[in-house]
From TrEMBL:
InterPro entries: DNA_clamp_sf, Pr_cel_nuc_antig, Pr_cel_nuc_antig_C, Pr_cel_nuc_antig_CS, Pr_cel_nuc_antig_N. Its main location: nucleus. The keyword Transcription does not apply. NCBIfam families: pcna. Belongs to the PCNA family. It is found in: Nucleus. It comes from Acrobeloides nanus. This is DNA sliding clamp PCNA. Gene3D superfamilies: 3.70.10.10. GO terms for biological process: leading strand elongation; mismatch repair; regulation of DNA replication; response to hydrogen peroxide; response to methyl methanesulfonate; translesion synthesis.
C-alpha cells in the first residue's frame, strides 16, 4: 500500500511542467522515506532526477518499495482536474489492479474529485549517478538563469559558460550577432541577499551546452527561488533546484563537442 498527501497540488503541477518536455514516461520509485524518479530524455542527452522526501507530505505511507510507472501525458490530464490549492492524495494498492488514484480536495468548497490513471510497465533502471567533484559551482536566482537562457537563445543554439576565480561568463554567438553576460567576483553580496549570484571556482572551466535543453531546465524556476549550476570541463552540467528543503529536482546535460575544427 502506498499513500501520500501533498498539501497543494500546485507542487506536483510545477514538477510535471518542468519535466514534460524531456520525459514521456515517469517511473516513480517509492520507498518508506521518499518518492523519486530518474529518466532520460528521448535522445539520451539529458537526465532528470527528482526526489521528494516524506517531509514534503502531510501524510506518507509506503509499506514496501514499489514502482509506479505513469505516462506524463496522462499525469498532466489528471492534474488539470485539480485547482492549485487543492490537496492531492496519491494512492496505490497492488491488490486492486493497475491504476493509481489521485484525490483532489478543495476544503473551502467542500469538494473532492477522484481521478484514476492507468499504470505503465516502464523498462527503467537507476543509473547510479556518481559523486562528482565539480571545478565550479554557481548559485543564482532562478529567474536570472531563466532570463539568461532565454536571451542567449536568440543568437545561437549553444551557450558557452566560462568560470574563473575572477568571474563567470555566459555567452552565445551566431550568424546574426551575439551576447555576453559577465558576473565579476565583486558581485558577491550579503548572505541574505537572494537576488545576487555567488560562485566558487576551484579550477577554470570552459564548457559548451545546448541552449535548448538549458531552457527546458529553466522551466523549473517556479519550484525554487535559487538554482545551483555545477560544472567541470568535459563533464555533464548539474542544474539543481531545491524543493522546500525536503527534496530536489536535478537535471544533467552532457557538454557539446565543438566539431568546427573538423570542418573544411
Amino acid at each position: 500500500m502506498f499513500e501520500a498527501k501533498l498539501p497543494n497540488a500546485s507542487l506536483l503541477k510545477k514538477i510535471v511542467d518542468a519535466i514534460k518536455d524531456l520525459v514521456n514516461d515517469a517511473p516513480f520509485d517509492c520507498t518508506e522515506n521518499s518518492m523519486s524518479l530518474q529518466a532520460m530524455d528521448a535522445s539520451h542527452v539529458a537526465l532528470v532526477a527528482l526526489k521528494l522526501d516524506n517531509g514534503l507530505f502531510d501524510m506518507y505511507r509506503c509499506d514496501r518499495t514499489i514502482n509506479i510507472g505513469i505516462s506524463v501525458a496522462n499525469l498532466i490530464r489528471a492534474l488539470k482536474c485539480a485547482n492549485n490549492d487543492d490537496s492531492c492524495m496519491i494512492r496505490y494498492n497492488d491488490d486492486e489492479g493497475d491504476t493509481v488514484l489521485f484525490t483532489f480536495v478543495d476544503e473551502k468548497r467542500d469538494r473532492s474529485q477522484d481521478v484514476t490513471v492507468k499504470l505503465m510497465d516502464i523498462d527503467s533502471e537507476q543509473l547510479g549517478i556518481p559523486d562528482q567533484k565539480y571545478s565550479a559551482v554557481i548559485e543564482m536566482p532562478s529567474s536570472e538563469f531563466q532570463k539568461t537562457c532565454r536571451d542567449l537563445a536568440m543568437f545561437s543554439d549553444s551557450i558557452v559558460i566560462n568560470a574563473s576565480k575572477g568571474g563567470v561568463t555566459f555567452k552565445s554567438h551566431g550568424d546574426t550577432g551575439g551576447s555576453t553576460l559577465v558576473y565579476n567576483s565583486s558581485s558577491s553580496a550579503d548572505e541574505d541577499d537572494s537576488g545576487k549570484i555567488f560562485f566558487n571556482v576551484k579550477e577554470d572551466v570552459n564548457v559548451t551546452f545546448s541552449i535548448k535543453y538549458l531552457n527546458h531546465f529553466a522551466k523549473a524556476a517556479s519550484l525554487s527561488n535559487r538554482v545551483r549550476l555545477s560544472i567541470c570541463n568535459d563533464v555533464p552540467i548539474a542544474v539543481e533546484y531545491n524543493i522546500e528543503d525536503n527534496g530536489y529536482l536535478r537535471f544533467y546535460l552532457a557538454p557539446k563537442i565543438d566539431d568546427d575544427q573538423n570542418i573544411d
